[in-house]
Write a structure and sequence with these properties.
The chain is flat, with a radius of gyration of 26 Å. It is 16% helix and 36% strand. The strands form five sheets. The protein has a seven-stranded antiparallel sheet, with helices on one face. Strands 13-15-16-18 form a four-stranded mixed sheet. It has 274 residues and is an alpha+beta fold. It folds into three domains: 105 residues; 93 residues, Seminal Fluid Protein  PDC-109 (Domain B), CATH 2.10.10; 59 residues, no CATH class. Strand 2 and strand 3 form a beta hairpin.
Length: 274
């Protein structure tokens, strides 16, 4: 087995060690990479925020239909993205031709500060961020449904007990939901949007609904005839990974219907396998 790191589509032979709680660097999760190159070359190769991965190459025996070795071998290559280790740390020259560099994950505090800075445009205090949050949520009301679905972090979170009106949007579980027509209600602890499709419709981020860009399906969502949907449950079995709303007598492409079931549960009725 050989190990390489991959940066900018170039592989470099390496040894990589991990430390989930590196006490020498604020207790963060780190990877130490050993490379055969100079200190300056390593610094230039892996500055902060460099996308990189670990590539593992193995030579394995080729087996025949009975599971016996044929005498031939083949290479198996696995690649693991490590770009989340985005902070470049100490570089050490070991005086034996190798140099090591620590790559670390941002701590939760650092990630939170970076997120706030990205939203506010400049570093702000926690108190200031709390004042900005309701303003951001109010501004998000003007987004289209498709835009809102792509940024659930900016949408007001679902809560209870709250009186919700038809058309209200709330985020829950990383998705954005909208109160269905005629379903004004006061939320309860066990009436979460994902469990009450009669009250809430999940809003899809802007997928084209084509075979190349199918819409992720959810229970209780509004489907459009003629478009393609990806069934998350059915996709696990690969029985019908892509499904589309079927043409029904009297229904034209573009017509819509709300269903409480996933596509694989309605194949032959509202959906057909593709």
């Amino acid at each position: 087995m050989s190990i390489h790191i991959k940066v900018n589509n170039t592989e470099y032979p390496a040894t990589v060690n991990g430390n989930r709680t590196d006490r020498s660097w604020d207790g963060r999760d780190t990877k130490t990479i050993y490379l055969t190159m100079s200190h300056d070359a390593v610094a230039a190769l892996l500055p902060d925020n460099t996308p990189w991965s670990i590539v593992q190459r193995d030579m394995v025996d080729v087996l025949d239909e009975q599971g016996k070795p044929t005498g031939e071998t083949k290479e198996i290559v696995n690649e693991y993205d490590n770009s989340e280790y985005s902070l470049a740390g100490d570089i050490t020259d070991h005086r034996d031709g190798t140099v090591s560099i620590k790559m670390g994950k941002p701590t939760e505090t650092e990630s939170a500060k970076a997120t706030v800075t990205a939203l506010a445009g400049e570093p702000v205090t926690y108190a200031r961020a709390m004042k900005l949050r309701p303003i951001i949520e109010q501004a998000a009301v003007s987004l289209s449904d498709g835009e809102a679905a792509s940024v659930p972090e900016l949408i007001t979170a679902w809560a209870y007990p709250v009186a919700y009106a038809e058309g209200d949007r709330r985020s829950y579980g990383g998705k954005v939901y909208k109160v269905r027509p005629g379903q004004t209600h006061t939320s309860q602890a066990d009436w979460t949007p994902d469990k009450t499709p009669a009250l809430w419709a999940v809003i899809d981020a802007e997928h084209a609904g084509t075979q190349d860009d199918p819409i992720p399906a959810s229970r209780g969502m509004e489907y459009e005839y003629g478009k393609y949907y990806l069934d998350s449950e059915d996709g696990k079995t690969a029985t019908f990974p892509f499904l589309r709303a079927c043409e029904r007598t009297g229904e034209q492409a573009g017509g819509k219907i709300t269903l409480q079931y996933l596509p694989h549960e309605l194949v032959g009725n509202y959906f057909k396998a593709v």
